[in-house]
Design a protein that fits this description.
Low-confidence stretches: none
Number of domains: 1
Structural class: mainly alpha
Strand content: under 5%
Shape: globular
Mean pLDDT: 93
Helix content: 55-70%
Distance between the termini: 46 Å
Number of helices: 9
Length: 167
């Protein structure tokens, strides 16, 4: 499957902002200008980015931020992470604690972000989304954590979440 490469992140970065609804609108407005092949490539890049973030350390960070995190919740967290743009995404992959500087509420999930490309594709081409059978390995990469160790593993994120809860 072809990719958009740097253009994928340029599209994402152009939509980043504090308002999720506005971000969805901007992304949709951009994606509607793409060809069928480009939409499929955008989705392939999205799933590659999500797969690269399918790691225990990021799941632990998501767990702390969200006060728990199921399998589905971790998918939605990775959509949120991608929606933050390339710089935040890359920093989080290098060091999950970097997310402490980017969370603005004690919940980080953006399920709808993953579906914009599908909605645009189906509306633009009046056909069902061609399922590519994306999936994830049975286990995330890295070392599995114990829930009671998460505050020690992610002290900056834990402190930021506590600060947000006190507001």
């Amino acid at each position: 499957m072809e990719t958009l490469g740097d253009r994928f992140w340029q599209i994402i970065d152009a939509t980043v902002g504090p308002d999720m609804d506005a971000q969805l609108q901007k992304l949709g407005d951009t994606l509607v200008t793409l060809t069928r092949e480009e939409l499929l490539a955008f989705d392939a890049d999205f799933w590659r980015a999500s797969l690269a973030a399918y790691r225990w350390d990021l799941w632990g960070a998501a767990y702390v931020i969200n006060g728990g995190c199921s399998d589905d919740g971790f998918i939605d967290f990775r959509s949120w992470l991608i929606a933050q743009g390339k710089a935040v995404y890359d920093a989080a992959l290098a060091e999950p604690e970097s997310l402490a500087g980017h969370i603005v509420e004690d919940f980080a999930a953006f399920e709808e972000f993953a579906y914009v490309v599908i909605d645009v594709f189906e509306a633009k081409f009046d056909e069902d989304w061609p399922n590519h059978g994306q999936g994830f390995p049975p286990e995330p990469e890295g070392t599995r954590w114990e829930e009671d160790a998460l505050d020690d593993l992610f002290p900056k994120i834990t402190a930021k979440v506590a600060e947000l809860e006190d507001m």
